[in-house]
From TrEMBL:
It comes from Panicum virgatum (Blackwell switchgrass). The keyword Membrane applies. Residues 31-64 form the Knottins-like domain. This is Knottins-like domain-containing protein. The chain crosses the membrane at residues 6-23. InterPro entries: Knottins, Scorpion_toxin-like_sf.
Amino acid sequence: MASTTTSSRCVVASALFVVLLLLRRGRRRWHCLSQSHRFVGACMSYRNCEGVCRTEGFPWGVCRTEGFPWGVCRWHGIERKCYGKRLC
């Protein structure tokens, strides 16, 4: 009887876990990026970039290297640029 109770608890726990994953997946929000028009020079500090982007109406700012999508390998490009970031 103990093994039946243990296995039923595992099934319930697994089902609950799957339900929670599905609920979280439905809330995913995408971020949209737009290059800043007011930021001048190479973007080396996200704080400077974020400050400029806030004056342009974006809640966040990020530094990205041109040519690398999603900021991958950020330091291996030629020039880092400032991008405003918001929820789509």
